[in-house]
Amino acid sequence: MPDFTNPEWWAQVGQFFASVGWNLLTVAGIIVGAMVVAWIFQRMIARIVTRIVSGAKDKANVDDTMALDRSPLAAVRLVQRTRTLGSILRNIVNVSIVVIAALMIVNLLAPTALGSLTLLTAAVGAGLGFGAQNIVKDILNGIFIVAEDQIGIGDVVDLGLATGIVEYVSVRVTHVRDVNGTLWFVRNGEILRIGNMSLGWSRVIIDLAVPADADIPEVEGAMLEAARGLAKDPKWRTRILEAPEVWGLESVSGDALVIRLVMKTRAGAKDDVARELRMRLKNAIDGLGLTLPQLNSIMLTGLEGASRVRGANPPKTKPTQIAPQAAAGAVWKPKKKPRGAAHPAPAPEDETP
């Protein structure tokens, strides 16, 4: 039973309430300080993001970020990457400040509890880390993908797991819509390689197969003329970056010769240019009176793709006709097949007496 008449007891009670009040004031100060620090960092991050986005809008001469779709792609990618990184930084700041403030409060109210909870905290952290390692991997990989601008909204990409147009990029998941309309959700931690077909430039590679008896220089000239006509067309010249090239005879078979034509285009215009170029090549070859066995578009891969990435300028050489070995002392001259003839020319007669 406490002795209410004892002054020492009242002094202990006053000291207890004073310590409790001081602890409460300290906790309130820690919370207020954490909120102030969080507010300062939030304002700094928001200010930096706003300045970068405003600079992109001013440079593109637009008032709304939605209108950046009509501006260069770099501005759109810059705004998207800046906002994503700003969101990541805000989350990191908030979590860090909350954790630090919580540790300070626990250390103030129960100084010995923090040490006793060390093993429990380590065990819980290890369990959560093991269970959430995939999430951490996704987030870290997503941060690098966004920070390094490897992909952006609207890019045509090959992620290995899915191929299509990127519709959304976050720090954990990337949304890719394929040509069939299927929306793929690809975890960033599962992405081992990224093939971005929307950056820089692309190359249209078309292999044109012509009959084995066709005049190669004439066919190459017709192909090059058709491709140059496409490059000069006002509708298409803005999508073509360099003059077309004929890389020459690619392969020879018993019934066809394959000649390769290439054209460097903007990244997003490759398919449209390839369709128009195939149509013009078909018309040009029809004008020569030849029948096309096949007309293929080629995608070079592996070592062949790496060796051809810088292009090629093959020397212009005329094919050398090699006469078959005739009888001893006999001289045989090949007869040219008249263009458009339905039947092959008769074989030369043996001049040996």
Automatic annotation (TrEMBL):
Entry protein name: Putative MscS family protein YkuT
RNA-binding as UniProt keyword: no
Domain of life: Bacteria
Domain Mechanosensitive ion channel MscS span(s) in chain numbering: 134-198
Family matches, as InterPro entries: LSM_dom_sf (IPR010920), MscS_beta-dom_sf (IPR023408), MscS_channel_2nd (IPR006685), MscS_channel_C_sf (IPR011066), YbiO_bact (IPR045276)
Location(s) in or outside the cell: Cell membrane
Molecular-function GO terms, alphabetical: mechanosensitive monoatomic ion channel activity
Assigned GO CC terms: plasma membrane
Ranges for region Disordered: 309-353
